[in-house]
Specification:
Elements: H1 7-60, H2 64-89, H3 93-113, H4 115-130, E1 138-141, E2 144-151, E3 155-160, E4 165-169, H5 170-175, E5 179-180, E6 186-195, H6 201-212, E7 218-219, E8 225-231, E9 236-245, H7 252-269, H8 291-317
Antiparallel strand pairs: 1-2, 1-5, 2-3, 3-4, 6-9, 7-9, 8-9
């Protein structure tokens, strides 16, 4: 049977424990003071470093949200470094290791739980650094075509040319092929047209180019061109190319409308026809026997037969 300690023995044991703890605390007071100083220094350093990083990023990035987020992340990293150094200085290296391991596990769990949100966030940060477009640019990607209305960390708001606001996740813009019509500031207009097989292609090219270059909004006039694209069912297909400033005035739809009208006027003035679909029926087994020729032959044959019949009747009457 275990003997229970007396009250005196218990008091002595508690005094020894408390005394040992007190000695340890006293011996670690300098380390505690140094750790607190380190934490304060890193806190001040993180504040000023965060402000400096924010100013630098706001100058280099178009999105203030991305700049502020990255500056905040940098500030937190500096604070964490100071905290880990302070804990290690007071002999809590095991605590530092546990915190790092716990932070990794928590970060992994959050990454899996909010995978889609995290992917959009990372894509938004990456695009903020690469800057493939900015507010007001006209872009096309993944069946979305319009101008950039606003950009944030997780998605981009695009205003389509049909007057709709489309919210596109940043990962869609980051993954897919992106066309930016504003970066170079120019755009080529293409106008297809067909002329009849009986007209001169070079003459059509000359009159169309001269007519298109009369517009003030046409730039690079030496690059205005007309190319024979191929043989159509009823026409020689041509493709008219000319360049304009984009975006600009007049707008794209107005310019294309004027281009089509100018091509039509140029061909009309040159007496060059724009044919509509024509079908020719050929009834010959080996080809070459047209319907009008067959009708003419049939009429001629009937007339000859009728004339021959009249001559026969006249002979019999005599």
């Amino acid at each position: 049977m275990m003997n229970m300690p007396t009250v005196g023995e218990a008091e002595k044991l508690i005094e020894e424990k408390l005394g040992g703890w007190f000695d340890v605390v006293i011996s670690h007071i300098p380390n505690f003071i140094v750790a607190i100083v380190i934490a304060l220094v890193f806190s001040i350093l993180a504040r000023y470093a965060g402000k400096l990083m924010k100013n630098v990023l706001r100058r280099s990035l178009d999105s203030t949200q991305i700049a502020d987020l990255m500056a905040s992340i940098f500030k937190v990293i500096v604070l964490c470094i100071g905290l880990f150094i302070a804990l290690d200085f007071v002999g809590l290296k095991g605590t530092v290791t546990s915190l790092l391991a716990g932070a990794g596990i928590v970060g992994l769990a959050i990454g899996f739980a909010f995978q889609d949100m995290t992917e959009n966030l990372i894509a938004g940060i990456a695009m903020g650094i690469r800057k493939p477009f900015k507010a007001g640019d006209v872009i096309e990607t993944d069946d979305v075509f319009g101008s950039i209305h606003s950009i944030n960390l997780r998605n981009t708001l695009i205003e389509s040319f049909y007057g709709q606001l489309i919210l596109v996740p940043n990962k869609v813009l980051f993954r897919n092929v992106l066309k930016n019509y504003t970066t170079l500031g120019v755009r080529r207009i293409e106008v297809p047209v067909g002329i009849s097989y009986g007209d001169d292609i070079e003459k059509a090219k000359e009159v169309i180019v001269d007519k298109i270059n009369e517009f003030d909004f046409v730039i690079r006039k030496d690059e205005t061109a007309v190319y024979a694209e191929g043989f159509g069912d009823s026409s020689i297909n041509l493709l008219v190319w000319f360049w304009i400033k984009y975006p600009g005035e007049p707008d794209f739809m107005t310019v294309r409308h004027k281009g089509v009208v100018a091509v039509k006027q140029a061909l009309d003035e040159a007496d060059i026809s724009i044919p509509f679909p024509i079908r020719t029926l050929d009834f010959g087994i080996k080809g070459g026997e047209k319907l009008d020729a067959m009708i003419s032959d049939k009429i001629s044959q009937q007339s000859a037969n009728k004339k021959g019949g009249n001559n026969t009747d006249a002979s019999q009457g005599e």
